[in-house]
# Entry
Amino acid sequence: MKATLITGRTIKQGMVLESKDSTMYTDANAICEFDPDDMKKFKVSEGDTVEVCSEDGAVFVRAVKSLQSPHKNIIFIPMGPWANQVTSPKTDSVGMPSFKGIPVSVELAKDKKVLTYPELLKQSYGK
Amino acid sequence: MEKHTDVICPFCGTLCDDIEVHVEKGRVMEALNACKLGNAKFMSMNKKHRHLVPMVREGDGFVETTIEDAVERVARMLLDAKRPLLYGWATTECEAQSVGIELAEEVGGVVDSCASVCHGPSVLAIQDVGFPSVTLGEVKNRADLDIYWGSNPMHAHPRHMSRYSRYPRGYFRERGQQDRTVIVIDVRRTDTAGIADKFLQVSPGDDYELVNAFRTLLNDGDIPDEVAGVAKKDIEGALELMKTCQFGMLFFGVGLTMSPGKHRNIDNAISLVIDLNKYTKFSLMPMRGHYNVTGFSEVLTWQSGFPFGVDYTRGYPQYNPGETTSVELLSRGEVDAVFVVGSDPAANFPKKAVEHLAKIPSAVIEPHETPTTYLCDLKIPSAIAGIEVAGTAYRMDNVPIRVRKIMDPPAGLYSDREILKMILEKVREIKNGA
# Structure
């Protein structure tokens, strides 16, 4: 599935800013919100692992039915280390990376694991 | 039990000033009036596990060290670097920010804040075309039309609508909600759109076109039947509300600054507000995220003349966003040490920038465990500004508010301001050959 990715604040993501060392942080952030019609069309179910790929990277996240739909062909990942595996560092020379409006492809990856942030950081940055 | 009234919530740029916090035996029992975000921050004070001493990386793990050793390590890291980056600042008070900027000047580094990845483009647009300022008090008492564009306050600023726009009774808006109209413009039908009177769903990346459509109609031009995914009749309907209101307000979020067009979207939105002022009173305001990101721009402007992304490498302040801002500096490998205060760039920067951050020497002052403390070489825990430390913060409308101290920090923890002062003194001591 080809889609446009936007990232940003959700209330659940904001509520765990002081508890990033808990599993709540992964639960709130390592997700991808889909339009319900897109989920039917592409046979994605709530809780499935999906792989989101952009020209800057790829990440496994958990599919979630969006409560803020419709947004056909738009997927949403809360701001955080998972989203930023695929956001673009291009700033158009103004300092601001492209956190919204990123062309991505999404594939079902039911047998893959969604990483916690220490696992994700270890894999991406070797620390 | 101690009851603290009129406590300022140190979470988002709304800086709600009516929180009542109940504290008993050093534990927060309740945070009345706070939203879910503010409540989570106050209740996080009861977390059992909190680092109380600095930790330095050794092999694959961290070992404890003293505050004196940590301060010296940061001072030497900053002095050894050719071009250190001092980043963050949005979740601490202005007095600490002021010392941090002095430190950046002393070590010849680059000082930048979260503004460069949230409303930096808004600042660039304001520098291009100006800005009609207004306070939230005026909005509450006067505005009869509020537009949220690329902003979802139900998630990011949960009490903004109840305190200032959708619901409150004001001096000229005695009936509250019945006297007010709300328009939401977004790429998704957000929860905020759910309680708006009118919703325009713009196609992603086409906000600039939609602003232009409004301006074209305002200036007697004509537009196609559909612009940016929005039907002409809906654009005309929204524009009629804007032209005929008594006091209109455009609140814009990072939906505009982070989308294609970036600062040009804001430039155009300000120009729309200028055009609307031919018909009625209209103003606009950025929906600032962290509670004191506005304050940092104020303090940095007093001290250097510029609001973010200031480079002191040559001994005097230089400001060139795109060159002296954090994401470019890290992505291009143009800094050789990073010092983070009150922020989490490892979580919130694109991967390419974090890759460089993970390679170079780094230190962070931060009360909690975060991806940045996980990747850094040295972490210094601090007292939490706005709860354990008093100071000044700026609300999103540039109104300074004194944030309160409601409880003592655990023994041995220093405030950001105290730690930064120690580092600054140590830097001067080393430079003077002591």
